[in-house]
Write a structure and sequence with these properties.
With 164 residues, the protein is of the alpha/beta class. It has a single domain, classed as 2-Layer Sandwich (Double Stranded RNA Binding Domain), CATH 3.30.160.150. 32% of the residues lie in helices and 35% in strands. It has 3 helices and 5 strands; from the N terminus they run αβαββββα. A 5-stranded mixed sheet has the order 2-1-3-4-5, covered by helices on one side.
């Protein structure tokens, strides 16, 4: 066995023996997390969809287990959806009667508590927006696609902030 192979073998053995994992540990690494989304807006059915997106993003990143029972969680995350705004956008100055598209905005306040001592570990606000346009001059803009994109974007931002 040559010297380079020997160093590689010893380094691999050392890292495997120390349970080394690639990447940096986050504050949620190895934790059980309970997520609750409270929809305080007029946005339809957004709470369960956002809960699913946040859970998927945390699980995809690894090191976090999302639980459905709050008592078995190390951390409890509450997402309060506070502001939902749907506004018409005009992309042609001659188009003053029909909207060419819609812009959706949403604000969420997030609070993460430690279940053991019921203390707030972090609190932050996330903003997200999405835009949809008409397919042609005779159709109306479909805001369902923009709403789904808004949920996906907001969920990814929230999961990122929770991990880091």
């Amino acid at each position: 066995m040559n010297r380079r192979s020997c160093y590689f073998f010893l380094t691999s053995l050392l890292l495997a023996g120390c349970n080394y994992k690639v990447g940096h540990p986050t504050k949620l690494s190895g934790s059980n997390v309970f997520i609750e989304v409270k929809n305080l807006t007029m946005a339809p059915q957004i709470g369960p969809l956002l809960n699913r997106v946040i859970s998927e993003e945390l699980i995809k990143a690894g090191g976090v287990k999302v639980v459905i029972n709050q008592r078995s969680a190390d951390y409890s995350v509450t997402v309060n959806l506070l502001e939902y705004d749907k506004s018409a956008n005009f992309f042609n100055s001659n188009d003053t009667v029909l909207a060419s598209g819609f812009k959706l905005n949403m604000q969420a306040n997030i609070e993460m508590r430690s279940w053991k001592n019921n203390r707030i570990n972090s609190e932050f606000t996330v903003l997200s927006d999405s835009l949809t346009m008409r397919e042609n001059s005779l159709s109306q803009p479909k805001d369902r696609q923009a709403l789904m994109e808004l949920i996906r974007s907001l969920g990814k931002k929230i999961a990122f902030r929770l991990r880091n």
